[in-house]
Amino acid sequence: MEFYSSFASREDACKVFDEMSQKDTVAWNVLISCYLRNGRTRDVLMLFDNMKNEGVCEPDDVTCLLVTQACANLGALEFGEKVHRYIKERGYGTARNLSNSLISMYSRCGCLDKAYDVFKGIGEKNVISWSAMISGLAMNGFGRDAILAFEEMRKTGVIPDEQTFTGLLSACSHCGLVDEGMEFLNQMSKEFSIMPNVHHYGCVVDLLGRAGLLEQAYRVIISMKVKPDATIWRTLLGACRIHGHFTLGERVIEHLIELKAQEAGDYVLLLNIYSSTGSWEKVSELRKFLKDKGIQTTPGCSSIELKGIVHEFIVDDVSHPQKHEIYNKLDEINKQLKIAGYVAETTSELHDLGAEEKANALSYHSEKLALAFGVLVTRPGTTLRVTKNLRICIDCHNFAKFLSGVYNRQLIIRDRTRFHHFRDGHCSCNDYW
Ligand SMILES: [Zn+2]
Ligand SMILES: [Zn+2]
């Protein structure tokens, strides 16, 4: 059966799978892992259901592990919970790797209490269990708790690994703990002989960027022992946007170009750095350059999972069957939020490369549509979880903050780089992202 996994394309695997007369669990698992590797995560969920409904062979612990990973990638909590129930029913619950994967899944769905429940239930926690919990705490903004968990882990004699330090460093970054973060970076190589990789450095750059230490962050990247990747440069670019540092922003773009990794989104950030510093001449220069080069932005896309179904929205989406109700709801929300002091910002941030032309036109970003849909179809007080493919903009971030307060709802938005937990009018990122 091994040969399936060597199929380069999903189509090949699918074809072979369809032609098989006897589909056993291993064949299903190979197919599912093939979909997962190719980013067809929604189909993975469908396959899991099909496999169960066909009833010829049952999903085993490997299937569950793969599907849990798909749920984590999608932020599909309800489906994840369904898989978790299945795991318990089948008695797979004792497998430590499954539990570890469930911790990651719940954390990435922004559901930390459930992650912690799974964590507590593991008899002998290994370094993966601890790292999953530490990373979960860190990515959800509980930096200090992550450091406490690390101290507890050390007491139990478990030796940290690369993942543990990724979690710890991102924890420091979330809480702005510059000294502690630099100390962990030191400690990992000196005490545990773990050479920092590009992810570790990425956390440090984020940490320094957050603290406004941009030049120091730049020096960290330049002096790294590993080759900087596009992500780390993008992290610094994000910091330049927050702190309005356009000369460094330009230098960063040069590095991205050198890596041939520059994306439209990077230029949008640079445009925003220029506009936030009032450098309008540079704004129009850059616009012209992008137009000449034919560079276009990736459309934003947000998804929200309700009753186990993932709904996707794009900007100004009119494809949803309930579009009229959604837009009416959005109008109503806008009115309510305005009373509370929300001001829609269409000019302060350029949303896309064509923003100039429609600066005053009312445009709805996909996350607003997903949120309005969530408010529309769920009971008051229900937590809404939205996953977005790009960075959330200032206006949508503001909108979500007000929404969480006025409608008394917890909102969890996972954007391209991080989690935002909105509650009572505040966000866990402390307005830095
Ligand atoms: Zn937006
Ligand atoms: Zn936020």
UniProtKB/TrEMBL annotation:
Keywords associated with the record: Repeat
InterPro entries named among the record's database cross-references: DYW_dom (IPR032867), E2_motif (IPR046849), E_motif (IPR046848), PPR_At4g14850-like_plant (IPR046960), PPR_rpt (IPR002885), TPR-like_helical_dom_sf (IPR011990)
DYW domain sequence ranges: 341-433
Keyword Repeat on entry: yes
PROSITE patterns in the cross-refs: PPR
UniProt PPR repeat ranges: 24-58, 126-160, 161-191
Record carries keyword Isomerase: no
MF-aspect GO terms: RNA binding; zinc ion binding
Record-linked Pfam families: DYW_deaminase, E_motif, Eplus_motif, PPR, PPR_2
Protein's GO biological process: RNA modification
Family: Belongs to the PPR family. PCMP-H subfamily.
Protein name: DYW domain-containing protein
Species of origin: Gossypium gossypioides
